[in-house]
Amino acid sequence: MDIKTASIFVADQGEALAFYTDTLGFQKINDIDLGEFRWLTVSSAGSNETELLLEPNVHPAAKAYQTALYADGIPAALFHSTDIQEEYKRLLAKGVSFKDQPVENDGAWLAIFDDSCGNWIQLIQV
Predict the structure, then answer these.
(1) For the chain, which domains are there?
(2) Residue range 78-125, pLDDT digits in tens
(3) Whole-angstrom Cα distance, residue 49 to residue 116?
(4) How many other C-beta atoms are found inside a 10 Å radius of the C-beta of residue 87?
(5) In what order do the strands lie in the sheet with 27-33?
(6) Distance of CA 75 to the CA centre of its chain
(7) For residue 36, what are the β-bridge partners?
(8) Which residues 6+ apart lie within 8 Å of 94 measured at CB?
(9) How far apart are CA 24 and CA 78, in angstroms?
C-alpha cells in the first residue's frame, strides 16, 4: 500500500493553484476538467510520488470542517522542509502570512502559515 494522493479543501481552485505553484513552488501534475470543477493536483518539484489534490470545499461538511479547523488554528496539512529558516524567509518575501517565526519544539522546528485558501499549513524540520 502507498499514499499517492492526499487532499486539502480550497475555496477557489484557480487561486489555490497559483498559490501552491507560484508561491510555494510546487509543480502542477494534473488539471483535468470535470465540468464545474477540476481534478487538480500538485507535487513537490522532482518528486511526483505523492500528489496534493486541491479539492473544492463546496460540500457543506467540507466547508464546515475547513472553517472549524481554520478558526481553531489547526493546520490542515504538514509540509517538510530541510531548512525551515530559509523557507520561512523565502515565503515571507513572497508575502506569505505566518502565525509566528519558526520555533523549536523537542528537536523539531515548526512554523505555521496561511495558504490564503482557507487553511493553516504547518512547516516542520526534523
Answers:
(1) 5-125 (3.10.180.10)
(2) 999 999 999 999 999 999 999 999 999 999 999 999 999 999 999 999
(3) 25
(4) 22
(5) 5-10, 51-56, 38-43, 27-33
(6) 9
(7) none
(8) 23
(9) 13
